[in-house]
Amino acid sequence: RMGRTVVELFYDVVSPYSWLGFEALCRYQHIWNIDLRFRPAFLGAIMQATGNKPPAMLPKRGEYLLQDVRRMAKYYQVPLKVTQDSLQHMLAISTLGAMRFLTAAGMTHPQHLEPLSREFWLSFWSQHEDISKPDKILAVARKAGLSPELAQKLLEKISSPEVKNRLKETTEEAIKYGAFGMPAVVAHHNGKPHLFFGSDRIELLGSIIGEKWVGPVPS
């Protein structure tokens, strides 16, 4: 693994663009000389700390967002489904519990982070489910291949100080790197961190670390 570029992906499953960036990076981790690290963080706290507002708060931007996400989902081949109610769904449902669950998983069973994150996005953005409910979190964990025992154990951990603090620390780390939204991708290259915002900057990330981008679905 010598000479591999460490790439950190700070994300929250409330963010549809984070899902697109996540899938692209998951595909490229097998092609590029990178060490991809999943860093579940809390978008609400990043927005608050930086004075940012969800794009959906601005009606014209909200309209564009729906259209843009539809086009991007098709282009990235990600089963993200947006409807007129998606923006309301996005603003109404808290992903704090889900992000704490992912944080707990990352602390003890990091191998589950990729499938778990994907299942949370599928539940929230493809099935439009309320992932703030504990039974929904357990259903997502089962679909991601976790045993009922492990899922229950992680669910119990989400109210623990260590999990709450870890999520807070990861979120603060993203802010220190300059994040103001998500996805925030940080590539550690030539001894310094390079921040990229959004799912459409992976091509630029590649050019900085000397890797070739061949589209969102490299064959």
From TrEMBL:
Positions annotated as active site in the UniProt record: 15 (nucleophile)
EC number: 2.5.1.18
CDD domains recorded: DsbA_GSTK
Gene Ontology CC annotations of this record: mitochondrion; peroxisome
One of the GO BP terms on file: glutathione metabolic process
Reactions catalysed, as given in the entry: RX + glutathione = an S-substituted glutathione + a halide anion + H(+)
Family: Belongs to the GST superfamily. Kappa family.
UniProt name for this protein: Glutathione S-transferase kappa 1
